[in-house]
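lol ok so funny story. i was supposed to be doing the assay writeup but got distracted and ended up predicting the structure for this chain instead. priorities right. anyway since i did it might as well share w the group, maybe its usefull for someone
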Amino acid sequence: MEVLRGWISDICVSILFMTAVELILPENSIKKYSKFVLGLVFIVVVVSPIIEFVNQDTNVYNDIALNEDYVNKFDHYLENNLDEYSERVKKTTIDSFKNNLARNCENLLKNNFKGNNFEVYPSVSYENENFKIKQLIVRVEEFGIKKVETIEKVVIGDEKNYNQVSKEHPKAKEIKKFLAEELNISETVIKVY
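and the output, tada:
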């Protein structure tokens, strides 16, 4: 903007100078030659910024080379740190998904199984741009009075393998079925305690 202002002021000053010289010169053959010389001076004043720009051409090339160097350094930095950045983003995304899944499951269970408090601990993985729920552990805390269940007698040295026998509470089965339908996952990945 400053260059344009200077250029316009140079043109105005040269026009004023040319007008003053024409008024001072007498009417003779010298006036014709002076007009020619003043015209050449005016052309030089008008064309001089263009000549300066053309002479600055080497500076433009230097600026382009300097900017290209900055871009190359930035690309190199991105290439070296892209894996680290993508791993951080992936971990943050998985953590957010786990927290949201746990909170949503707890709210769903509290709304559908009143009189209970729930804590949900999901285990998820991120594969092929999809989340996969590997395991969902649900801890149930019942409020109120609970019925005492009888325990089977355990005999040491008995032929039965008691490790393979598991009694699952009917409410646990109901919770598993509900979550499996809501989340569209298999009941086998849901553990209720």
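The beta strands are 116-127, 130-142, 190-192. The mean pLDDT is 82.
back to the writeup now i swear
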